[in-house]
Amino acid sequence: MTRKRLLAAIAAAASAAGLFGAVVTAEAAAPSLTATFAQSSTWDSGYGGKYTLANAGDANSTQWTIEFDLPEGTAISTSWSSVLTRTGQHYKVTNAGFNGTIKPGGTASFGFNTTGLGLPAGCTLNGSPCGGGVPTTTTPPSPTGTTTSKPPTTTTSVPSGDVVDVGTAAELQAALAAAIPGRTIRLAAGTYRGSFVATKPGTAEAPITVTGPSTAVLINDGPSGEAPSCPAPTAGWDSGYGFWLYGAPYWQLKGFTVQESKKGIVADDSHHTVIEGVRVHRIDEEAVHFRRSSADSVIRDSTISHTGLVQAGYGEGVYLGSANSNWACHGNSGGVDRSDRIQVLNNHIGPYVAAEGIDVKEGTEGGVIRGNTFDGQGVSGQNSADSWVDVKGLGYVIEGNTGTFASPGTFANGYETHNPGTTPSFANGCGNVWRDNKSDLGGVGQYAIKITSTSKCSERPNVVYASNTVSRAVNGLANVPVTP
Questions:
Q1: Is the separation of the CB atoms in 417 and 429 below 8 Å?
Q2: How confident is the prediction for the chain on average, in pLDDT?
Q3: CB contact set of 270 (below 8 Å; sequence gap of 6+)
Q4: Averaged over 371-375, what is the pLDDT?
Q5: Closest among 439, 426, 427, 443 to 478, alpha carbons compared
Q6: Residue 407 confidence (pLDDT) above 70
Q7: Which of 103, 116, 124, 118 is nearest to 51 (CA)?
Q8: Could you give the CA distance from residue 416 to residue 429 in angstroms, rounded to a whole number?
Q9: Is 237 helix (H, G, I), strand (E, B) or coil?
């Protein structure tokens, strides 16, 4: 007999016998949450941190809030899978729209990067110690004499990261126009149809966040009006972009869906953008574009499919930088689009992404493409789009990805490099590294990794490690010697 059934039986017997004046009731099911902290990585000036929440109870959690302090000299620069607010050195972190519910025996997590090496202290979870138990209270000592002390002064302040709830397109547009550093704009489930443009910058210490469930859907029926010579927010012109960051660094976009727009999410001159857990699909052209030197950004844990519905050759999943032919508009760093050091992590890209899953443009450098799943079904072959990833940038690390292909589609190779000439000159398509990638070419693709030129990269050669694997290839793993 289970504990609940035993208690119920005792209660029934007691009531029948009249032995007790009050009925004994079964204990109600409830969640029991704990949280543990770990450093995922460290460097000279900071570290990556992660909290993992576990539910040891017998009911779902519905929301959670973690609070902790960081010592002076340490601050959180970016965070993900959460809504973060800060007051001085005190941080309050609540669940994002997609990870508040933790089933019994389940876990959820959020992470952050810091400037400074100090570790969190005084962690509480929903008001109780993160390790479990009840909130710590201190009983004041009994008076021992006539001397009294003045009670401490208590002040109440509005956190810098206040939350604005929106439920209509007009409310979202107003919230974007009034955004300030540290603010969180929280979307209710529903359809938001219109032009959504953010032009207010956040800061490293206080990013601006837009978060919502996947059932919060943004749609832009544009474009409309007279377009300027180079894309920029202009009165009377609607770009048709689902969500547009323009000159708006330190924004975090989490959880919601963008669909049925000309382009999905575009970041222009918006460095340190974080895109997390979004869905972008049914898009006329590319799904996500980091442009105009939107460096040091990340897209992670997101799902992209069905792009290029109007222009298949421009239907990339994730687009890093700009073609040199467009630097006249987007080359805002010495005439070049330096969308450098962007991380593309743990996303599911495809099927029916009509162009490359990831297109890495010339002039960009130092990015990471890790842990993604590529489904090449539906790649169009238009505008040379015939691979999962096309690398024209310099010094990228491409590791731990999984790619597959099945018809229909025009598929040549899993990963390709190209070396376009540019002014100013860069070692485009050179110095990149592939390791631990798994490729299934469906009996159609020639190579998992095809290096277009070794002579152009003699000073910064591309490196293909033997830890990469391939199946159902026409020719093999790579067209160059692999490194053990």
A1: yes
A2: 88
A3: 245, 246, 247, 248, 249, 251, 292, 294, 297
A4: 98
A5: 439
A6: yes
A7: 124
A8: 9
A9: coil
